[in-house]
Structure formats: structure tokens, C-alpha cells
Amino acid sequence: MSDKVKFEIEFVIQSSPQLLYTYISTPSGLSEWFADNVNSRGEKFFFIWDESEEEAKLLKRKNEEFVKFRWTAEEDDSFFEMKIIVDEITSDVSLFITDFAEEDEIEESKMLWTNQVSSLKQVLGSA
């Protein structure tokens, strides 16, 4: 079993929580920014990049709040979660990412998320 380390990263996104939730929770929304194509059958989501395909299980979701997935190829308890947080005072919307990576790959993983979320912001017109 690998010793993956949990990390968290937050992005301010200029979007409504409702619209943002569509982009993080549906195959069509995820296809716009996270992967080249995404398909789902029930709780199984299939993420396709170029010639590779990864399967993830939807562990939990709460409408307009968060989605939590686990890669089925992983042998450990790691997951990735995308949570929408709305600041009560300013009404700013943030996307809070929780993910796991090998200790020496955390910075690379954070950069990957930063690039992916940058694509999401462009799709939302929030860039």
C-alpha cells in the first residue's frame, strides 16, 4: 500500500454555486474542463484523456455543495473531493479541492489541479 499524503487547495471562482456544481458533478460538465470525455453508468464515472481511461466511483454528493470520487484502480483509501464553499459575508464562491498524492508528487498534483481549474474558469467565463 502506498503512503499517499492528503493535500488541499482552494480556488476562488466567479460563478454561482448552482452552475459550478453542474460542472463538477455531471459527465457533460466534467468533459468541459477535467477530462477530454466523461461517461457515467450509475455511480461509475469513466474519465478519458487522449488514449487512456480511468474509472472512478462516485462516493458521495450533495446538491450544490460537493462531489467525492475514488479512483477504482487505487488500492488505498484515497479519494478526491471538490467542495463548493460560499463565504457568508462576501458571497465569494470557492472551489475547495481535497486530493491525495505521493509526497514527492504533491507539487505536481497541485499544478495539475491549478491547470484544470484554470480551464474550468475559462469555461465559466471567470478567468
CATH level 4 superfamily: START domain
Rg over C-alpha atoms, rounded to the nearest angstrom: 14 Å
Low-confidence stretches: none
Shape: globular
Please provide the ordered H/E string of secondary-structure elements.
EHHEEEEEEH
* Helical content band: 25-40%
Q: Examine the secondary-structure arrangement and name the CATH architecture.
A: 2-Layer Sandwich
Overall mean pLDDT stands at: 94
What this model shows, in words?
Pfam families: START_2 (PF19569). This is START-like domain-containing protein. InterPro entries: START-like_dom_sf, START_2. There is one protein chain. By secondary structure, this protein is an alpha+beta fold. It has one domain: Alpha-D-Glucose-1,6-Bisphosphate, Chain A, domain 4 (2-Layer Sandwich), CATH 3.30.530.20. It is built from three helices and seven strands. It has a seven-stranded antiparallel β-sheet with strand order 1-7-6-5-4-3-2. Strand 3 (about 45-50) and strand 4 form a beta hairpin. It is globular. The protein starts with a strand and ends with a helix. The mean pLDDT is about 95.
What are its keywords?
alpha+beta, START_2, 3 helices, 127 residues
Task: Sum this structure up briefly.
This protein has 127 residues and is α+β, with helices and mostly antiparallel strands. It is 26% helix and 43% strand.
Write the layout of secondary structure elements.
Blueprint: E1 4-12, H1 17-25, H2 27-31, E2 37-41, E3 44-49, E4 52-62, E5 66-71, E6 80-86, E7 93-102, H3 106-124
Antiparallel strand pairs: 1-7, 2-3, 3-4, 4-5, 5-6, 6-7
